[in-house]
Amino acid sequence: MISRSLKLYKFSTKIPTGVFDFANVQQGLTAPSSIMVEDLITRFSAYTPTNMYNSLDEYSRELLLYLANDLSWGMGWGILAISMGIKIAFTPLMFSAQLNACRMKLIEPESKNFQNMIQRAMRAQDFKASRAAQKQFKLFKRKHNINMLIPGLSILQMPFLFTWFLSLRYVCSLPDKYEGLKSQGFLWFQDLSEYDPYGILPIMSSFFTFWNISLNPNMQSQSTVPFAKYYRYVRFLPFFSIPVVIFFPAGVNLYWCSSALCHLIITALARQEKIRKIFGIPKYLPGTILERQNNMNIQTIVKAVVQDRVDLNNDVATTTTTAPPQKQVQTDAQHIMHEAKSGEQKVKIFASKPKKQK
Predict the structure, then answer these.
(1) How confident is the model at residue 279 (pLDDT cuts 50, 70, 90)?
(2) Beta strands in the chain, from DSSP E residues, in sequence order
């Protein structure tokens, strides 16, 4: 017992003094102000929706005044530049959403089949089969590079557009404070603080929005989603807003018209076959129902052209022995044969390369 206490005493003498001085340790611990609750709240308060809106609102107005006054662009060109700049900044997201919608349009028959399978399984309360069908549909979309999160990313532009709309409406309501609004417009709407005297801007904006909705591939699909049959009427909604927006200031309508025009250009480009090929979207996705139907149609056309050629040969052989003069019959027959051969060659080209059929 004495030997053990001696060993403990020797070990304690080797420990530096002050290690077990709990009073010194407690005095050295102070509450760091950087992690206080109040400091955290004040630090992250700048990222609240209200403060972010105020920051964007102030920045957009300062940018408009900089373009209008410092660069001498005028209020009209400043509104156009900011409105189109926001659209151009989010063009990659919008273009990706349009291409994703084009891919979804090409697998529309498979989508209907999978949806019917899932609905039948749910009605039969076969949840295992329903989950299996959903998994297969997910793998099928992944195979053709279809991501359902891409359309949601294009919504990121909405806070910027909404803030710019409210800021512009505030600026247009104070023509005495922002003097350039009275005389820095265009053509027939020189005063940007007053409404368009002829209502041309609201009507143009409604037409551009109407074409944007009409060119959307999702609006042209015969989907099995509830209320899908009412989609065709959604494109007419912009025209119902004309009686309201016609009394908005011309600066606000100029923003709406320019934004709708930029969106229309992006949508029209995404529908071009050459642009889609650049981004790897063929006319028909390989292995889909639409591709097989296209190949069957081409084979039917080839058979019809071959049969027409046989019938033409028989008709020429019979007409050479009867009424019309020989030279006229030969010229007519040669003309018909030439058209049949040219049509057959075109069909053969399409049959060898079905993806390039127009």
Answers:
(1) confident
(2) none
